Amino acid sequence: MIGFCVPTLNEAENLLREAENLNPGDWIQHSIYTAEASKLIASNCPTLNPETAYILGLLHDIGRRFGVTSMRHSIDGYNFAMSKGYPLLAQICLTHSHPLKLIDEAFGVWDCSTEEYKFVEDFLKSTKYDDYDKLIQLCDALALPSGFCLIEKRLMDVALRHGIHKYALEKWKATFKLKEYFEKMIGKSIYTLLPGVIENTFEL
User: Which superkingdom does the taxonomy of this entry point to (predicted)?
Assistant: First the structure.
């Protein structure tokens, strides 16, 4: 069933290449490392399909194909995925920045219409997150354009670029809870699965 909700691996890779031609930037490599982390963790989770996890990680920011925007990329990604017939991918495009299910927890500006803002707000409130939502939220926080990193480094990278807000602390706590959730599932530290995580974090 899930296979009908996401692109094939070949199509996903083609979509990312197409997006890179339209709007090149660090977000491409970030997406690739998010995908790799998702696959590596999912490979140790009996309830998750590693290829599906990879595809969702690869395209979680696909809304950036439409240009340099802030949080608009989420709604653009949702609309793009729905137009292609991929509702699970569309959901990930909206949920990947929102472990608290609050629209204003995102680090960025909602550069969209009032109607679009309300749609995203209602979508987050009404959507029951599954392990794919949670996995991409976690892996988004494990991936820099240069490679895998400790969550703390990624959180500070985002905060330094966008600033912090009243939900920042709770969002950070939620991200670490996701780490604990998957580590309990796989029975070991997620960092043991990510090649070069220490070297990239500390630029060794």
Answer: Bacteria
